[in-house]
Design a protein that fits this description.
mainly alpha, transmembrane, membrane, transmembrane helix, DUF6082
Length: 220
């Protein structure tokens, strides 16, 4: 019985509150008119209220801008997290392939004839260049910095062999979509690679490190 009676009572209470609120809204102008001094300038008060109204619009716009910036920041953070997850998966697959050379044929075939050892080196090179691509597309690496790292990278023999082999794959990937950032990355890599080739021969892999000095006679 108590539960059945509570619903009508609750509805009646809300109806009373609604009617009371409506009555207050309707009566408020008359109350203000009766309580306000006769010398009160209502036009001046209206101008002041309009001024506060304009300020409220500015505050609302600022709040809306804050919401937009917050959403943009969250979107960027989501992109970074997704890219980090993708990079981690790529890294794990590459490590798995390097640990078992029989998995080399699970990837796409080379665009140019290479030895098995060089193909393993190209897989690692792909991790390096893909890292720079991720940083570039996320605006963590600007164009001048990208050119700088690629210039150093293409000084080496393996770096040049990587782009000579995989540059065509990057081109196909860039041309298959509408990502302008991807096309810009490939264009920059092409330009830096061409400049490196024009500058002279690459540093051979065997010339990266000096041979160890022989131990002097009698040394333990």
């Amino acid at each position: 019985m108590t539960r059945r009676n509570s619903r009508p009572r609750g509805a009646a209470a809300w109806a009373c509150v609604a009617l009371a609120s409506l009555a207050v809204i309707c009566v408020t102008p008359f109350l203000l008119d009766g309580l306000a001094p006769r010398s009160l300038d209502w036009n001046r008060l209206s101008d002041i209220s309009q001024t506060y109204g304009a300020l409220s619009v500015l505050f609302s716009a600022a709040a809306l801008m804050g919401v937009v910036l917050s959403i943009a920041h969250q979107s960027r953070q989501t992109r970074i997290q997704n890219e980090a997850a993708h990079r981690s998966h790529h890294h794990q697959l590459t490590l798995l392939t390097l640990q078992d050379p029989s998995f080399l044929v699970c990837w796409e075939p080379p665009n140019t004839p290479v030895t098995r050892e060089r193909w393993r080196q190209i897989l690692v090179s792909n991790l390096i260049v893909s890292m720079w691509w991720s940083d570039f597309t996320l605006d963590l690496l600007d164009e001048s910095s990208l050119r700088a790292v690629l210039k150093d990278y293409f000084r080496g023999e393996v770096g040049r062999d990587y782009w000579a082999n995989s540059g065509a794959s990057w081109h196909r990937l860039a041309e298959s979509g509408s990502d302008r950032r991807m096309r810009a990355f490939v264009r920059i890599a092409d330009e830096v690679y061409a400049s490196a080739v024009d500058a002279g021969p690459a540093v051979a892999s065997a010339a990266y490190f000096t041979p160890p000095h022989p131990a002097p006679p009698g040394a333990e």
